[in-house]
Amino acid sequence: MEVHNVTADAETFTCNAYLAIGERTTLVDAGAMEGVVDAIRDHTDSLDAVVLTHQHGDHVERLDAVLDAFDAPLYAYGDHARRDNALVDGDELLVGDEACDVVYTPGHADDHVSLVSANSLFSGDVVVHDDGAFDDGSFGRTDYPGQSRERLIESIRELLDRMPDGVEHMYSGHGSVFHGDVREVVERALDRAERREPKYPDE
Hints:
Its cofactor is Zn(2+). The chain has a single domain, classed as Metallo-beta-lactamase, Chain A. It is built from five helices and 14 strands. A hairpin with a 4-residue loop joins β2 and β3.
């Protein structure tokens, strides 16, 4: 599957927004980069779907611009004025060319979901490869009001239970894309989270 991080050139803070091109060309998160619509158009003239991992500002700031430009249906777990399809845990969703299971993974955000296929993991902010806090297995921050390290730990465990062996591509909301043994990265993230390591010095 052809996947592009369309916010890779952002000069301001944003999430990674991933364009998965295939049978069902899908944007996973919209990001906060002002030129994201043009970046998407560098690869495709149309979108079949926009899927949100969660609705923190860095993931949805440019959502209206994307929806206005491409008139694509919006899939989200949490309520949103422009949501066309409500996601629930256990749904199956075609992203690009891969059938993904929707896994409800709160802790960093109450409406957080991850997308898992036989080959790929779109993990949002629940687990990342490297983000400046930890390398080779990190996890979403949980030090803001409404967030929960305990719930995040449960979500990572659930993700491991639901993720098949052989997943080789991890597209996370921050940090770099990872290609290799994704399960090992997620297990390291879980170990760090369970040891209650503070993600940031002031946490």
